[in-house]
Design goal:
The chain is mainly α. It has nine helices and two strands; from the N terminus they run αααααααββαα. Strands 1-2 form a two-stranded antiparallel ribbon.
Length: about 240
């Protein structure tokens, strides 16, 4: 979503001056209700480890709010370069065959490590405008010892407050040049159609996910992320040349 918004703002002279942070803020605006909906659905199925999700989500929300205020002041090229590097790291991670660990829940993790993990998830979410699942899922499994069957559900319960807090902080940040229907750095006019489209297509995506072989899905998505990262880096270097 963030590269899509970068391209959207660069496509018109009327939005060419929109800061890069607006793409990150608007992405969080879309992610928050989507994660809330997903966490609610999983919660009804009793698939969320709430004893972990609540403290980690609380620390993630505080971290996201603080980091969003900092990220709003980072130069555009720095944000874009950081996001491109994040895409490359994620692409490399996805390209590797997954490690299949035992699906067992260990002893409850101490509150300190769980809260520290939330700080990392919230910081990543707010800084890069992403859900934070790339960080949340490994931390939930390795640190909080959440079983594999509950990882996706619990990560959504952590991501929801982080994305919401980050979006609110971005909405309160000063934004000198933004499109109409914006609140601070959150472009509501672009965010609402993205939210509607994501909710409308989530069922089709789930059905496609079930039909495509896991290696093909993993490698294909890895290639897509790598291509988006290289496109961003090329634009940065070409623009500075």
């Amino acid at each position: 979503m963030v590269p899509l918004l970068y391209a959207y703002y660069a496509a018109s002279s009327t939005t060419a001056g929109v800061p890069a942070a607006a793409a990150h803020a608007t992405s969080l605006f879309v992610i928050a209700p989507t994660a809330v909906f997903g966490a609610f659905r999983y919660g009804r199925e009793k698939m969320v480890s709430w004893r972990v999700a609540l403290p980690m989500g609380a620390s993630a929300a505080v971290s996201a709010a603080f980091v969003a205020l900092v990220a709003a002041r980072i130069p555009d090229d720095g944000l874009r370069a950081g996001f491109a590097l994040f895409l490359l790291v994620t692409a490399a991670h996805l390209a590797r065959p997954p490690h299949r660990a035992a699906d067992a829940e260990g002893e409850p993790a101490a509150l300190g490590p769980v809260a520290a993990g939330g700080v990392a998830v919230g910081a990543l979410s707010a800084l890069l405008g992403v859900g934070g699942g790339v960080v949340a899922i490994p931390l939930l499994h390795a640190v909080a010892r959440v079983p594999l069957g509950r990882l996706a559900a619990t990560s959504l319960a952590v991501i929801a407050p982080a994305a919401a807090a980050g979006a609110v902080a971005y909405a309160l940040a000063p934004a000198p040049q933004m499109p109409p229907w914006s609140v601070g750095l959150v472009d509501v006019g672009a965010g609402l159609p993205l939210l509607a489209g994501s909710l409308a297509m989530v069922g089709a995506g789930a059905r496609a996910n079930a039909r495509v072989p896991e290696p093909a899905l993993r490698i294909g998505f890895s290639a897509l992320l790598a291509a988006a990262a290289l496109r961003l880096l090329w634009g940065l270097f070409a623009g500075g040349a």
